[in-house]
Write a structure and sequence with these properties.
Its main location: cytoplasm. This protein is mainly alpha-helical. The protein contains 44 helices and no strands. The longest helix has 27 residues.
Length: 781
């Protein structure tokens, strides 16, 4: 009853003050209301039940704007935010900033948030969660929200304020401030522990983990690491507190925290690797064997951390065994990049350098097997850098094992290797190895990967080029082969025809494993060269594989693009056959241009050639010229129509794969357009008619383009005799598309198709009528 009795007066008093702040125009009343509310900031009931609602009203109220010259109102207004519970204040200010447009309220919130950060409220927030019982009433959802806002304050503010973001909110300033607040909280924790009070570091650890997992570990540890290093070096309590902080980091964040910390200072971790399984996995396996983007200094930090303590050296020996197994694995040598193999080789050399004589004897068998197997599988490699890597590491291992009469010697950079080995022999302490001889070995390993590039000879024959692309172990050799493939294929016709289908298969499945410059363009040009050099077998292969299983959409679209480009080249007049390669070099890769624009230009040019302009006189008839495409047009065209309605496990042309359907329709339209007078119009119209109302605009464009190709390619008399009544229905559909389709390209193509159709009909109808009148009647008439 007593609690209920005190809540009612408090609620009435707060409600009265908030009504005054919302509605009153009297500065005296506003000051009185603000003073009443600020006096209640020391009351636990007010901060627990009424504070959040009160500052919400203050953000929205116009009292500050109406009385902007009253310094006391400004001061009291700020006190409400800077003396209340910091967690509630931070949440409200960030939510307001992220949801308000440009306004006086937004400016006030930005200003008070800057004061909030500079006045030590972050330290107070963190410490309030460290005290036992300080956050026991928080729900998990509220706790997670507060942590998220603390960790992402720069993102929240910058995403809304953009270029107007104050410097205080930027990552470069905010995260060092947050790190300083963490240090202050850890110091208070140490003081509390010395005074016999219990504390919890779970909240601070969660904030640390959240910041690191968002990618700001370097900004945090630049401030944390030096200070913690100096404190933990002389104070055992600080060592316990720091290790406890790291142990409390959530498991999902452990890797990011450990990686960030070890870049700065690994000594802060103590024996965390022995007590935290996640940290042990990251340090002994993931950073060494699963990732290879880290620098040599980080490798040194990880392995040096394991070697510096007698309890952790057991893990160092475990790492040596694991790295040895990977280094001598022939499958790993074949299927991992040179960079990753270099990274593992560095790790192996660093591990071996840190072993004592007794540990080397203990691990002698594993190291010996590693040396023999690893060197052998690298010497078998076709990549020079891998072979050199095997020789260098093999010599080092052989020297460390110190096997009399059986040390490995290779003729590789003799002078440098000799000097290096001499310095290694002079080193006695394993720590000295770490700082002296190993430095030379690692730097030599780094330099040879940059300087010793294999100078591959360019392929001179078609089969050499094919072999290089099939093995594809050497990036430089693959690049040279792709660059020369088109010229070799066109120059050596007989040799190309012998391997055309096999070469086509290799190119279709070839992947850009080495980020080769202009890979897709070079590959496409080679595929077109194969097609125009050995037409029927290669075209049969393309059209068969287009509907086969287990191809990606990209590969199917590559096939269509190659067929279209090949048909364009073959349709060039034979008299210009020496310029046959010109259209290919002028056509860019599929992903670099808009095909609908390119093909519309072709259609418009053809329309203009058929359009009669009175001012220019009659258009002369175009003289027919033989080309290489006309006799083989059917091989390109008809196989693409055979399986379109048969969905497969990996390909559903009439279902989800409408992108390929649109490309297919455009390709068929172009193949029809290039095959003038060929008997393919009826088949193409029957195919496109079923999908003319497709929901995807790319498909509808393809349908109209294909119809336009039919009208361009078929003579007017054939349109009437072969299509008959279907022409009227087609014309009605085109008129509807031209008027009502939501896509501008569809409407434009439909208008052009109608122009072609109407011109053909106007030209051919009088001839058709005259053909029914007997000759004598015509003369009489």
């Amino acid at each position: 009853m007593g609690s209920a009795g005190t809540e009612a007066p408090m609620r009435l008093q707060v409600d009265s003050c908030l009504r005054t702040l919302s509605a009153s125009r009297d500065p005296g009343e506003i000051v009185h209301a603000l003073r009443t509310l600020t006096r209640n900031l020391e009351d636990a009931e007010f901060t627990r039940l009424h504070y959040t609602h009160a500052i919400q009203v203050l953000v929205s109220a116009h009292c500050l704007g109406r009385s902007c010259d009253d310094e006391e109102i400004k001061k009291l207004w700020c006190e409400m935010f800077l003396r209340g519970p910091p967690d509630q204040t931070l949440l409200l200010l960030l939510d307001t900033i992220s949801s308000r447009g440009e306004s006086a309220a937004l400016e006030r919130c930005m200003s008070v948030l800057e004061k909030f950060l500079s006045s030590g409220r972050l330290q107070l927030l963190l410490w309030s969660r460290c005290e036992v019982g300080g956050a026991c009433s928080d729900s998990p959802q509220l706790r997670e929200t507060i942590i998220g806002h603390l960790a992402a304050l720069p993102s929240i503010t910058c995403n809304h304020l953009h270029t107007d973001t104050p410097d205080t909110f930027l990552p470069q300033q905010y995260y060092p401030l947050l790190a300083a607040s963490m240090l202050d909280t850890l110091e208070k924790t140490c003081c509390a522990l010395r005074a016999g009070q219990d504390c919890s570091l779970g909240f601070v650890a969660q904030v640390l983990g959240k910041v690191c997992i968002q990618g700001y570990s370097s900004q945090i540890f630049e401030t944390l690491a030096p200070r913690l290093s100096s404190l933990t070096r002389v104070d055992p309590l600080w060592q316990r507190v720091t290790q406890r902080l790291l142990e409390k980091v959530p498991e999902r964040c452990t890797e990011c925290v450990i990686t960030g910390l070890i870049r700065s200072l690994s000594g802060l971790m103590g024996n965390l690797v022995l007590t935290n399984k996640k940290a042990q996995f990251v340090l002994t396996h993931k950073l060494l064997l699963q990732q290879y983007q880290h620098t040599t200094p980080l490798l040194k930090s990880v392995l040096g951390y394991l070697a510096l303590d007698s309890e952790r050296r057991t893990l160092l020996k475990q790492v040596v065994r694991s790295v040895c197994q990977v280094w001598c694995n022939s499958s790993a040598v074949k299927h991992t990049s040179v960079e990753q193999q270099l990274y593992v080789s560095k790790a192996l050399l660093l591990c071996v350098a840190l072993l004592s004589r007794s540990e080397i004897q203990e691990l002698r068998q594993e190291m010996f097997q590693c040396m023999l197997g690893g060197v052998q599988c690298r010497l078998d490699s076709g990549i020079e850098r891998i072979r050199r890597m095997g020789m260098i590491v093999g010599e080092c291992l052989s020297h460390k094992l110190d096997t009399p009469g059986s040390q490995l010697k290779f003729q590789v950079s003799k002078m440098k290797a000799f000097c290096m080995l001499q310095k290694l022999q002079m080193c006695t302490s394993h720590f000295y190895y770490y700082n002296c001889g190993l430095e030379i070995f690692i730097s030599f390993l780094d330099s040879f990967t940059d300087q010793e590039k294999k100078k591959s000879a360019p392929p001179r024959y078609v089969r050499d080029c094919l072999e290089a692309l099939m093995s594809s172990d050497d990036a430089e050799r693959v690049e040279l082969s792709l660059q020369l493939a088109e010229a070799l294929l066109r120059k050596n016709v007989k040799a190309t025809q012998e391997v055309s289908v096999q070469f086509s298969k290799v190119l279709l499945h070839l992947e850009d494993r080495y980020s080769t410059p202009h890979f897709h363009t070079l590959r496409q040009k080679a595929m077109v060269a194969l097609t125009v050099t050995d037409i029927k077998p290669v075209v049969d292969y393309w059209t068969t594989e287009f509907y086969s299983l287990n191809y990606s959409l990209r590969q199917r679209m590559d096939i269509l693009e190659v067929l279209a480009l090949s048909a364009q080249e073959l349709s060039e007049p034979i008299i210009n056959k020496h310029a046959g390669a010109q259209p290919i070099s002028a056509v860019t890769a599929l992903e670099q241009r808009d095909d609908i624009t390119h093909w519309r230009q072709i259609v418009e040019k053809r329309i203009q050639s058929k359009t009669r302009r009175i001012s220019k006189g009659g258009t002369p008839s175009v003289k027919a010229v033989p080309n290489r495409y006309a006799p083989v047009a059917g091989f390109f065209f008809f196989p693409l129509l055979r399986n379109y309605d048969k969905p497969q496990v990996t390909f559903d042309l009439l279902g989800s794969d409408h992108l390929v359907l649109g490309r297919l329709l455009h390709t068929l339209g172009l193949l029809m357009h290039l095959a003038i007078n060929a008997p393919m119009g009826r088949a193409l119209l029957d195919f496109v008619w079923a999908v003319r109302f497709h929901t995807d605009q790319m498909v509808r464009r393809g349908v109209v383009f294909a119809v336009c190709g039919v009208f361009l390619s078929m003579p007017g008399e054939n349109l009437l005799t072969e299509l008959g009544d279907d022409l009227m229905e087609t014309r009605a559909w085109l008129a509807d598309v031209a008027e009502n389709d939501c896509d501008a390209d569809c409407r434009s193509l439909a208008v052009q198709s109608l122009m072609l159709l109407d011109k053909n009909l106007k030209t051919q109808l009088p001839k058709l009528l005259l053909s029914f009148i007997p000759n004598q009647t015509m003369f009489e008439f």
